[in-house]
Design a protein that fits this description.
heterodimer; A: 517 residues; mainly alpha; disordered N terminus; disordered C terminus; B: 206 residues; alpha+beta; Immunoglobulin-like; 3 helices; 9 strands; membrane (chain A); transmembrane helix (chain A); nitrate transmembrane transporter activity (chain A); Nitrate transporter (chain A); MFS_trans_sf (chain A)
Chain lengths: 517, 206
């Protein structure tokens, strides 16, 4: 691998439009460019994730019309909303492995093009059951989060991969907001300009996200590329027993308690964001007597915060990590996510329109920032099992959404506003486990690091003695050295960390100190 | 310090005025409205309604005044209202006594001038009306639009209700379009995959 890089470095430097590192991963990100292969991959990745959010949450803003057409009851609507986020629990878990096997280009294209028929089928449903089944299958497409992260991480160097991931994930999540404006407008177009009855117009509206699935899928197939040097199938696989390695990776991920803490935590930042995407338009429509377009616009404001709040969450997590090390990151995550819970409680207690909108926006900003902050810590939990941990955390997000929707927004026995208060309380309670996360080399929120523990010990312990003899653990060693920055400038242990003198602005580009797939 | 005090006082007064204003407008409670109107809903030929279809069938709504007292009404609004059966587990159709918050009657039939002789209207059911069980209610409103009297075709929202069959919203053309686009999506994906495999094999072979 090293020889290959040396041999190719000089002639290929000229080949790429962006400056690249030794693996030909880009060292900067130019958002307005579509240079191949890096920027093209970035845009294809985040736009495909955006479109999947668009189609998964295309139904909620139209629920007031759909519930009349299909004669649905509140429990049926709630069950469909739960179904929409539960499908992707499984698909997110599988997507990491699929990307490993066939590459993110095929992984994404397969998922969104096979999912397109599910989106189109929404136009055919006749009752609550069909609606629920359709939303269940459409929800599978949310696994594009994993392929988006994977693709972007393959194209951008470790120093900026965090920022680029925050941008891609944040802009992808925007789909949940944009759809709340877009779908009522498309519905109005089909109903008023094309003169269809309301019960036909909403069905026709679903052709738009469905077509976008097909178009994006084709664009990815024709213009996408897995890696800077070519496609997955063209590059050699490293030797080794693939199956045994895979089982070990899953074992190390599943047996670390930190994985499961994040499984729960992400459910109460990303999970509640999904829940709110599902219920908020109907809440404003019913409680404050707004029309469909206005309710959709307000609901969209929640999702649109993603433009800056998720990347900002990651950035400030970085800042906290720079000054206070991992302990700073953990405190930041706890504070931001608990504030999100508080805002949710207040939102449920507001009885008039303007304060409700204000607190909904605050709530969205805090939980989305918590999402970004979560992925400022997750890469450090494990180097070897990173893909599986991302998949598990992402799946946990959906489980949290399923749980909160089933508990608080499906039953007819209490109103949505009461459900919001309860959900806020649950967020605050379920954020407490972050106090349990303790790294021997960095400490936890309440306890310091243990003396003598090192990053190398932590990351190398994921490899068996046999594997270490074969030298398979070297990428982890490299990562461990880079991760020393998580000791923080004021955390204590290291005396002269060169990074501490760096101006803080530069750190915006080094969210994840090291993550290479 | 002084300015902020003045500001708080001003805000308190404004809030008080707004509070009074909403109170002054007054809530109209359904339970307090005199039931001075008699409303019947039948098929246009006079037979009782069983099942009607939106977009195709019409109903004949008649209202009459059954009190000799003077009612200060200028218009009569007739509306289609949900029977109890269709309100179950559907909070967006809930009945509230305060008529501003009441969602029982969401669909307008007609607005006519109030006369003591009564009136009638033949109404073709609009395609936007959902499938449910309904009855008809009439409100006599005064010049300000405030309800002053009411009457309905069903005594308790259970008896004497009729079923409305809605349009499905589906068309054969939609079904066909879904089929074609789905096949195109999956077909082009696998087609591309296979063609690329063949292309790469050929490249390797050469």
């Amino acid at each position: 691998m090293a020889e290959k890089a040396n041999a190719m470095q000089d002639p290929d430097e000229a080949e790429f439009m962006l400056p690249v590192d030794s693996e030909h991963k880009a060292r900067t990100v130019k958002v307005l460019s579509i240079a191949r292969p890096h920027m093209r991959a970035f845009h294809l990745a985040w736009i495909s994730f955006f479109i999947c959010f668009l189609s998964t949450f295309a139904a909620p803003p139209l629920i007031p019309i759909i519930r009349d057409n299909l004669n649905m009851t509140k429990p049926e609507i709630g069950q469909a909303a739960v179904a929409s986020v539960s499908g992707s629990i499984m698909s997110r878990l599988m997507m990491g492995t699929i990307c490993d096997l066939v590459g993110p280009r095929y992984g994404t294209a397969f998922l969104i093009m096979i999912n397109a028929p599910a989106v189109f089928s929404m136009a055919l449903v006749d009752d609550g059951e069909g609606f629920m089944i359709c939303r269940f299958f459409i929800g599978f497409s949310l696994a594009t989060f994993v392929s988006c992260e994977y693709w972007v991480s393959s194209m951008f160097t470790t120093k900026i991969v965090g920022t680029v991931n925050g941008l891609a994930a944040g802009w992808g999540n925007l789909g949940g907001g944009v759809t709340q404006i877009m779908m009522p407008l498309i519905f109005a177009l089909f109903r008023d300009s094309f003169h269809n009855p309301a019960f036909t117009a909403w069905r026709l509206a679903f052709f738009v996200p469905g077509t976008l699935h097909v178009v994006l899928g084709l664009l990815i197939l024709f213009f996408g590329q897995d890696l800077p040097d070519g496609n997955h199938s063209q590059l050699q696989r490293q030797g080794g027993d693939v199956k045994q390695g895979f089982l070990r990776v899953v074992y190390f991920a599943a047996t670390s308690y930190r994985t499961w803490v994040f499984f729960i935590l992400y459910g109460y930042s990303f999970g509640v964001e999904l829940t709110v995407d599902n219920i908020i338009a109907e809440y404003f429509y019913d409680r404050f007597e707004l029309n469909l377009n206005t309710a959709g616009l307000i609901a969209a404001a929640s999702g649109l915060m993603n433009i800056f709040s998720r990347p900002a969450g990651g950035y400030f997590s970085d800042l906290a990590g720079h000054y206070f090390g991992m302990r700073g990151r953990l405190w930041f995550l706890w504070i931001v996510q608990s504030m999100g819970g508080l805002m949710c409680i207040v939102l449920g207690k507001m009885n008039s329109l303007t304060p409700s909108i204000i607190f909904m926006i605050f709530f969205s900003i805090f939980v989305q920032a918590a999402c970004g902050a979560t992925f400022g810590i997750v890469p450090f939990v494990s180097r070897r099992s990173l893909g599986v941990i991302i998949g598990l955390t992402a799946a946990g997000g959906n489980v949290g959404s399923v749980l909160t929707q089933s508990l608080f927004f499906t039953s007819s026995s209490y109103h949505t506003e009461v459900g919001l208060v309860y959900m806020g309380i649950m967020i605050i309670c379920c954020t407490l486990p972050v106090t349990l996360i303790w790294f021997p080399q960095w400490g936890s929120m309440l306890f310091p690091a243990s003396k003598g523990a090192s990053e190398e010990d932590y990351y190398v312990s994921e490899w068996t003695a046999q594997e270490q003899e074969q030298g398979l653990h070297f990428p982890s060693l490299k990562f461990a050295t880079n991760s020393r920055s998580e000791r923080g400038c004021y955390g204590g242990v290291t005396s002269a960390d060169p990074e501490c003198d760096q101006p803080v602005a530069e750190l915006g580009l080094s969210m994840w100190k090291s993550y290479s797939h | 310090m002084d300015f902020s005090r003045k500001l708080s006082v001003a805000l308190l007064i404004a809030a008080a005025i707004l509070g009074l204003a909403s109170h002054a407008e007054g809530q109209v409670l359904f339970s307090k409205l005199p039931k001075s109107l008699v409303v019947t809903a039948t098929l246009p030929d006079g037979k009782p309604i069983g099942v009607v279809k939106t977009g195709e069938d019409s109903i004949l709504v008649k209202w009459a005044v059954n009190t000799s007292a003077q009612i200060p009404a200028s218009k009569v609004k007739t509306k289609l209202c949900f029977a109890v059966e269709s309100q179950l587990l559907r909070g967006w159709r809930a009945t509230k006594d305060d008529l501003k918050k009441d969602k029982t009657c969401l669909y307008n039939i007609a607005t006519q001038d109030y006369t003591t002789a009564g009136g009638e209207v033949t109404y073709m059911l609009a395609k936007s009306i959902p499938g449910a069980k309904y009855f008809v209610r009439a409100y006599a409103v005064n010049a300000d639009g405030v309800q002053v009297a009411t009457g309905q075709s069903s005594p308790n929202k259970v008896a004497n209700t009729f079923t409305v069959i809605p349009i499905s919203g589906r068309h054969a053309s939609i079904d066909i379009a879904v089929g074609v686009l789905s096949v195109f999506s999956v077909g082009s994906l696998f087609g591309f995959f296979i063609l690329e495999r063949i292309y790469l094999k050929r490249k390797k072979g050469v």
